[in-house]
Amino acid sequence: TDASGAFTADRLLEGEYTVIVSAQGHLPATATVTVTAGTVARLDVTLQPYDVGVLGDSGGALTAYLRANGVAATELAWSAGLDLDGFEAVVVNGGSPDRATYDAVVAAADTAQASLIYTGTWGVDRGGVRLLERHTGRISVTAQGYGDGAVVLEGLAAGHPLFAGLTDPAQLIVAGGYYSVGGGYAGKPLAQLSVTRPDGSVVRGLGVGFDWRTAASVEVVLSAGAVTEAVGPELGWTDAGRRLLLNAVSWARSAAMPVPATPAVTAPAVTLDETITVSGTADWPSTVHLRIGTPEASVAFTAVTALDGTWSAKIPLAVGPNALTATAVNAAGASGVSAAVVVQRWSPAWTVPGTGQSRPVQLRLDGVTPGRAPADRAVLVVRDATGAEVARSALKWTDERFYLAVLKGLPAGTYTLSAELTVGATTVTADGPEVLFQ
């Protein structure tokens, strides 16, 4: 073709011709054209660039299957200099790259924001899941086999695009087929694989899982999705098994990490401790940024969400009110700011003057907000030398801004004081001094 992409062929005999058009980096296209004497036959052909790669194919079977289903796939060779620019997904079906080559290819995929789909099967030298295990430790192949019962996927994550068109459970491979199952996966499990062996025992483990690589690429694990000389689309896979691979390629090509929603923050209303545990939920994956004071304050602490979205962090508090706000951040962006959760940290100071049989007990709380009594309920608890509770009375808030109660009528002995202070649903205990009655 010339610079404009045009090509002219003349001096042709009349008839129907098959035209095959190919270009580097593109899927070949085939078309037919009829040539008639005295007229110009025009044929326009659009080539589709390769956007899905296959590493470790088995005789081209996987690439051929993808192409037959409308995927512009091409075989790739493991190489430290592999350029994945323009690729949307790469199926890691096997091969034997060393660690340096493997790391270089993964880095190239991340740079291109190309998703990686790891397939697994029976055999220590088969499938991409073995490479993920060997070079990263992000997963373990916990079982494998063939000659057993049907390979079944169950517990499918409801509504996930990976499982479009599949029922739960879904048989992926016929009885006797080759498979592997995973365990200890660092990403999020989405479905479990189940195989019943001839002795009646059941092999179970990770069947499908995923993790985010970048804001626009994912890592997908298909524990029984590899194509080899012994298993594949025409060798034991069911319609569900074939559909699962196509779903994985389709979703991985277009996956986009969502910006996290505003996180939830849970903390006690009041504490006497210098450090507390703040917890909550946020979208996975994200890092929660905690601020103390205004939402514009510097980030004081961070916490990474678990797979179930939970998070927690230990934070020190100043005496007095502490306003906590949080945002969730991931590669796609940052959430809004959570509503402030105020934690009051009080510092108790006790005074028990006198030595008589009737003694006032004063409890001051540094850090309280001026105004009404700081606690909704305040109780003085008296315990004897054995730790048994012997008295309980209300602590009253005075105009002098301390709690007051009177000890009287106690037999001779040593007693330990404490105060139970309740704010909302939170109750804290302020340990007090020992007092001696003679």
Give a quick precis of the structure.
This protein is mainly beta and 438 residues long. The chain contains four helices and 32 strands. It folds into four domains: 1-48, no CATH class; 50-254, Rossmann fold, CATH 3.40.50; 264-345, Immunoglobulin-like (Sandwich), CATH 2.60.40; 347-437, Immunoglobulins (Immunoglobulin-like), CATH 2.60.40.
Chain-wise SSE layout:
Elements: E1 15-21, E2 26-27, E3 29-35, E4 48-49, E5 52-55, H1 61-68, E6 73-76, E7 89-92, H2 99-112, E8 115-119, H3 129-136, E9 140-145, E10 151-154, E11 170-173, E12 179-183, E13 188-196, E14 202-214, E15 217-222, H4 239-254, E16 264-266, E17 270-271, E18 275-281, E19 287-292, E20 301-304, E21 310-316, E22 320-330, E23 333-334, E24 341-345, E25 347-351, E26 358-366, E27 377-383, E28 389-394, E29 396-397, E30 403-408, E31 413-423, E32 426-437
Parallel strand pairs: 5-6, 5-7, 7-8, 8-15, 17-24
Antiparallel strand pairs: 1-3, 2-4, 9-12, 10-11, 10-13, 13-14, 14-15, 16-18, 18-21, 19-20, 19-22, 22-23, 22-24, 25-26, 26-30, 27-28, 27-31, 29-30, 31-32
